[in-house]
Amino acid sequence: xxxxxxxxxxxxxxxxxxxxxxxxxxxxxxxxxxxxxxxxxxxxxxxxxxxxxxxxxxxxxxxxxxxxxxxxxxxxxxxxxxxxxxxxxxxxxxxxxxxxxxxxxxxxxxxxxxxxxxxxxxxxxxxxxxxxxxxxxxxxxxxxxxxxxxxxxxxxxxxxxxxxxxxxxxxxxxxxxxxxxxxxxxxxxxxxxxxxxxxxxxxxxxxxxxxxxxxxxxxxxxxxxxxxxxxxxxxxxxxxxxxxxxxxxxxxxxxxxxxxxxxxxxxxxxxxxxxxxxxxxxxxxxxxxxxxxxxxxxxxxxxxxxxxxxxxxxxxxxxxxxxxxxxxxxxxxxxxxxxxxxxxxxxxxxxxxxxxxxxxxxxxxxxxxxxxxxxxxxxxxxxxxxxxxxxxxxxxxxxxxxxxxxxxxxxxxxxxxxxxxxxxxxxxxxxxxxxxxxxxxx
Amino acid sequence: xxxxxxxxxxxxxxxxxxxxxxxxxxxxxxxxxxxxxxxxxxxxxxxxxxxxxxxxxxxxxxxxxxxxxxxxxxxxxxxxxxxxxxxxxxxxxxxxxxxxxxxxxxxxxxxxxxxxxxxxxxxxxxxxxxxxxxxxxxxxxxxxxxxxxxxxxxxxxxxxxxxxxxxxxxxxxxxxxxxxxxxxxxxxxxxxxxxxxxxxxxxxxxxxxxxxxxxxxxxxxxxxxxxxxxxxxxxxxxxxxxxxxxxxxxxxxxxxxxxxxxxxxxxxxxxxxxxxxxxxxxxxxxxxxxxxxxxxxxxxxxxxxxxxxxxxxxxxxxxxxxxxxxxxxxxxxxxxxxxxxxxxxxxxxxxxxxxxxxxxxxxxxxxxxxxxxxxxxxxxxxxxxxxxxxxxxxxxxxxxxxxxxxxxxxxxxxxxxxxxxxxxxxxxxxxxxxxxxxxxxx
Lengths: 442, 442
Hints:
2 copies of one chain form a homodimer. In chain A, helix 1 crosses helix 12, helix 3 runs parallel beside helix 4 (96-105) and helix 7 (170-181) packs across helix 8 (186-195). The first copy, chain A, is an alpha/beta fold. In chain A, helix 5 (115-132) links the parallel strand 5 and strand 6 (136-137). Chain A starts with 13 loop residues before the first strand and ends with a strand. Chain A has helices spanning 24-35, 37-44, 74-80, 96-105, 115-132, 149-155, 170-181, 186-195, 204-207, 210-224, 243-251, 314-333, 371-381, 414-425; strands at 14-20, 47-54, 70-71, 85-88, 109-112, 136-137, 161-167, 234-235, 254-264, 270-280, 292-299, 303-310, 356-366, 386-392, 402-409, 412-413, 430-439. The first copy, chain A, folds into 3 domains: 14-144 and 315-333, Rossmann fold, CATH 3.40.50; 152-309, Dihydrodipicolinate Reductase, domain 2 (2-Layer Sandwich); 352-439, 2-Layer Sandwich (Alpha-Beta Plaits). Chain A contains 14 helices and 17 strands. Chain A is elongated. Chains A and B meet through helix 2, helix 6, strand 12 and helix 12 of A and helix 2, helix 6, strand 12 and helix 12 of B. Strand 12 (303-310) of chain A pairs antiparallel with strand 12 of chain B, so a sheet runs across the interface.
């Protein structure tokens, strides 16, 4: 046999699929549903028939899509089209939340890529789904095509996950990577990202860390079996990263990466935060370039795992959505649902001041004897111990004469380091502010 | 709430788990089952009670394990202990095959790490499991703790996978990595691997590629929805890799990696092979060090993904086994089974001669004018085009005077390259044999 044969006894069972949203991802999903119908039927065991596609303006023609499928009444499509599966690709909280809940209450299973919604209302949605005996799958909500939801929910569920650290926002990784490899300023790199479609016209959700915070919350919930909301996540944007920071990182054999971090601390509190951080060149996360994503997972038995791939974009996200679609269809066909959302703990979230990191600090001091000793004494007083210090020679023409100090701490508590920084700023020893960047994996 | 709380209403349902084998992995699994019973109960929804552990000699005490659980009658344990789930960690074809089939026919679901068995008899076992309405899960069979089976079966199932290339054997990766980074000979590196427990006393299954071939067959079956057996895989060991090869690779900006390769060619034939190959330093697979594994997947929509982590060892493998165990328990508790083995195509396997690669060739020629032209002409005659050629100066004292030629081809067909090599060997132009190494990702 040399032909690519689809089983001769074609499945006759049909499941109806309603698609909400037909933007970058929705168009790709619609295309796959229409063009690969036979293949999806062979994989799922049933034909997946598009019952309708909800868009903002149904009068705008979409190439390759039968206009009869288009509607601008998403609520009616969900309620009245007899959809077995609703794919939500509208994004945002409203009306996505109402539409998903309506879909579930009408007996449909749901596939969504909506990280913001799940990070805010996941608990509610999963509970309603469980009551109604339907699936909610969301592989596409975190890290695009990279399979990370199933690995956390199922493959690693027999293990104790300690740490999840990821580059989960392609826009900010592209920007920092561009600043690193091409020495662009933040503003130049942002414009370049916008021109290539890697950043929105309004880039706030990405560069201020809201997108990454939602993903961090979802990852932390899955990893630690506790509800973590996007609003629980400590969040810093990357807008204050300068080429001077990038150069300083390079001098230490590091790069600056936009990280989402979720860890279980020694008191079983969840540390969950989003910020730029120094990462050593030798760390696997350092080799995540351009708009790619990567997620690094550390578990007691499994050890250190990493998942790498395209974190966004129409096709990769559509790949994750259709994987979920086939899984949900297989479940539905057999009258079953996938594993329930496993939240059986109620762990506290650590306050940011309670978290542990290593810290890079950089500042200018007046060039007089005893200043460095005073700085070191101040840090020691706050239990912050030094890993390395570098004092650069006085810069000619500085007035008053000054020296530049950069240092890396050992693991220290955020609140102690913050107190050090405040005291340093008020000490009269410094000229200008202290620059602080956390370090991971060093 | 600051305590790590397990739900107060403890589940009362009990599933009985029989463990076959108590070696490196089995001991770890038994330890997890006994020490993390509450946690596994919270995750799976039921208590997992060990009904027995089959070992070769039940009279040998095992630390931490109640001797009453031990039996040397595996067949009776499977048939008579009322096991709901049987975990098979004996390995090999017999008696593992009979025991698994007996377990299934007695109504138990199966979790196994047995790549050799699945690569030889997977089709039969999956069919019997489907008939009996039970699960067979095998995440641990490929790449230890790295989640790859679920990603291929479920996350990427809506996509078209084109390529799976992996470092799936930790022993051979350790050996080649040691040869690369510490300039050891193959024999030295093998002894070092054996001393560290990364290689067996009889290393044949690893260094001759049998282990990797079984894994390649499993990956190809999942990726291409066709039955591929271990015996379908073209297989070369790594025993002929020399430090001269390693040096030559380095000179080209490459490393030599032990690869398992499964690709869909342009005629929808499956190329599936295991051999050492040149990989560029910049390729993600080049950074897989020591006994780690990595799997690189290319799919039409998802793009390029990579999964990296510990590929073997007791704890990582036990992590994958317990993940499957919780999943199977969740399924069983709800009276459902996971997705069936999805084999709906019957694609041909390409003959090795039909496969396409780039090739590195190295040989000595007699140092006389026109030899290089003759070599180039011979390659061209066989449609093998050159990417780069390097002729090294004559080595002093060689008798007869000779030059060393190394070349890299563009993509060429294996059979054409083989014919070139044969003609070169018979041409009278060469001194000694031709060294051939395939290249991937260049």
